[in-house]
Amino acid sequence: MFAVLATNFPKIRQATLNCQLDRGLGITITRPRKCCRTRENPTVTTSATELADRTIVLKKNHPSERSVWLGPIGRDARVDALRGFLLVLIMVNHLPRHPLHRFVSQVFGFVSVAEGFVFMSGLVTGMVYGRTLVKSGRTALRHRALRRARDLYLAHLCLYTFALLAGLWGGLSIAPRFSSLWTAWWHGATLIYQPNLFDILPMYCVFLLLVPFVVEQMARGRNVLVWLFSITLWLLAQWGIGGPAHNPSWLNLGFFNILAWQLLFVAGAYFGYRKATGQPSPVPASRLLFTFCLVVVIVLFTLRHQGVLLGRTSPLFNTEIMLQEWRSINHPFRLINFAAYAYILWYLPRSVDQRFHQLSLSRFLRYLGRHSLQVFVWSIFLSYVAFSFKQPWHSLSPVWQILFVLGSTLSLVLPAWVHEHWQRTAAVRNSIPRLSPTVAP
After folding, report:
1. 242 and 199 in contact (C-beta within 8 Å)?
2. Is 103 left (phi over 0), alpha (psi -120 to 50) or beta?
3. I need a surface site. Which of 163, 179, 298, 340 has the fewest CB within 10 A?
4. Mean pLDDT over all residues of the chain?
5. Measured on CA atoms in the order 347, 351, 354, 355, is the torsion positive or negative?
6. Interatomic CA distance for residues 121 and 114, integer angstroms
7. How many CB atoms lie within 10 A of CB 438?
8. 401 contacts 98 by C-beta, under 8 angstroms
9. Does 92 have pLDDT greater than 60?
10. Can you give the pTM of this predicted structure?
11. Which helix (H) or strand (E) holds 260?
12. What's the pLDDT at 102?
């Protein structure tokens, strides 16, 4: 029996996905309804053995039966580890100047942590909301996206309000251009004013509001339309549209041009959706392409550090413009650099992950990656507090600065632990198995 199930599992899974996808999108397609056979009989007789097996499965998947560090079954450990790694870099990079800055600020080439974080967020979004569309339909997809956007907005609003109030009591003033606290608050609440450190979460709010439309179009096979629309917006950003020069004086959307950065998010969502629905990767696993990406990474890394590695700087490449102005608009040069790194990481075999995941460092990073929103909000809070004490910070010795950086990084566990504890408590309350009234005794 188990051999037969193992042999036919791919076909059964694909049939189930197709049937669920048809229901989610409201498309009627005539096909054998093998995946929905259990719905034909409303009365299901459940034996004692089946109930015992169900209890074992529930106990195995119960939150109390899993280690906090290992995480829930079904998550992609590589994705969680990468997100945790990026969160650590964000924490270290968002503190006032310290000796470790030179090792985290765009050190890998003409690519920063922001590119990776936006792409990974899109990847996870595509996987999560792709499954939601397949299993529960369009309504559930839209409700879930709206709830997540609401959570991000409330987190941003709480952080922004705290920073405004702290500025009155000696903290860093984030809205010096406004004459009153109320004016500064409603400008931030409506997202038309986004100062430094407070321009990431609003961008994600907009992305999440567009996720249902993007995922539904992908489910209907309109990938080309999605890509054309996204690339068109990105091209407009290359011509300055969406930047400060083209925006009215009362509109400050922060450093990142959202028209340019949506391309990375949409690209991540595209690959995540294909992974969630069991579709093959559109990018071939080619050793030749892997070698080409390695060459690109090495050349751009050398160009990024040409003053140190070559002993001179080329007048043809202004690294300051490439590191700052091009970063705001997601310049093609930087996109190529990021794509090369992304392909290299994707090409690495899973055996590398298995060795790395045995280390305590990997468990730490995966733990942070599973609670990215809470960890990111905490990092922004710590960054604001640190910049509020910028003058005392610079008076510290390099050793003390490094110790504070390490302490801030380790403290990222706190919001992750609180959120994990809250999730486990909620799961315990809601995990009591109840027999359906249609089940015969």
Report:
1. no
2. alpha
3. 179
4. 83
5. negative
6. 10
7. 9
8. yes
9. yes
10. 0.80
11. helix 258-276
12. 87
